[in-house]
Design goal:
By secondary structure, this protein is an alpha/beta fold. The protein has ten helices and 19 strands.
Length: 415
Amino acid sequence: MENLILCHPRASSGQDPSQAIIVKCEVPQTIPNDHVLLEVDRFGFSANNVTYQALGEATHFRYFEFHHIPEAEGVSSKTHGVTPVWGFGTIIKSTHPKVHPGERVYGYFAPARYLLLQVSPDVNKYAFFVPRPHLPPDRRPYNQITRCAQDPLYDPSPTAEDLTMLYRPLFWTSFWCEDWLNSSNYKGGSAQILISSASSKTAFCLAYLIRKRNSLQGSSTRRVIGLTSTKNLAFTKRLALYDDVFDYESSDTSLVRNLAQGHWIYVDVAGNDALNARVRDHFRVCGDSELVTCISLGLTNVSASTIEPSSASWGFGSEAPQGDDPKLEHFFMPEWLAIRKQQLSVSAITQMQKEAWTRLMSDCGTWGVSLRRVCGPDQVKAAYEEIVRCGLAPEDAFVWSLCGETEECGSTAKL
């Protein structure tokens, strides 16, 4: 069997990191003990994956160290990296006594046809884990391979699997950030939240969760304002998840006029230093409004060609000096989740997540996101190159597969 894997040049190699390369290699016929070989049926691709690629060599994140890259002509682990993706697959071989062929699984995969993974001794009916001792312990959520048959959030329908790949990784970052702000009464529980890159899934899922908590509590405790680009303004307003939305270009005057009195928390999803400086300037001229903290939740404005490999080395609760107060704090979901696991039982966390996910699956159909399925190596490579040229529209979502080329996989559907 022939394997195919999508990879990209490392920025440190001096090559163009925006190139897409499909590497061919043989699938091992014999696999080591305590390993599984799975066929990756399909995987999601979004702005989140562009961020993974951009931070592939970043000291704190190290996304290129989750999966091995095959050695091939002109390609090696020193010159190229594999950008992780969230996807579904089926185990076709197993040498671990507790994991069986035929199982449907979901996890943090390589964009490949086939994937060989080691299985740690920590196996339960819900999941097994890939041992990655070279990475920090807080990466454990990324090492988990979910066994779909026992996953309380799993729905086997194709549409539900598509939604899972597109929303589940981003949604939990937003979910735990909102949980952190609410459960800790952070910074005195500021009632106004300003969010940049408001058209991104991470941002509008956070807005959705804040509004959902307001609704469930029968109050309007927190007001949420979005900032986005002019081209994404109409889509962001149609979401109806923000109390108001401003575009970056006019926000200098519009935002100042509309800043309510009181304390504000700014959640930076864009990762744009110039924009962050402008936001601070807005609050300096608003004497009745105070910006109490800036929280970094994403880097939607970075690309593999614009970030230095060492420019993003931070952790949860750390503060990066920006020259002006308040400083930028960086939220990293696995680290907060580790704290919550000390405060709550596993069953309580599971129930929280199940209730939130069920509501999301019911509500997200009104958001106007279209799904584009792409199958086959040439088609996937072309789709990636199109994203490099044209960018990603917020209403577009992608599900890719390197297995086969079917009519169904080339379709577009409304989610």
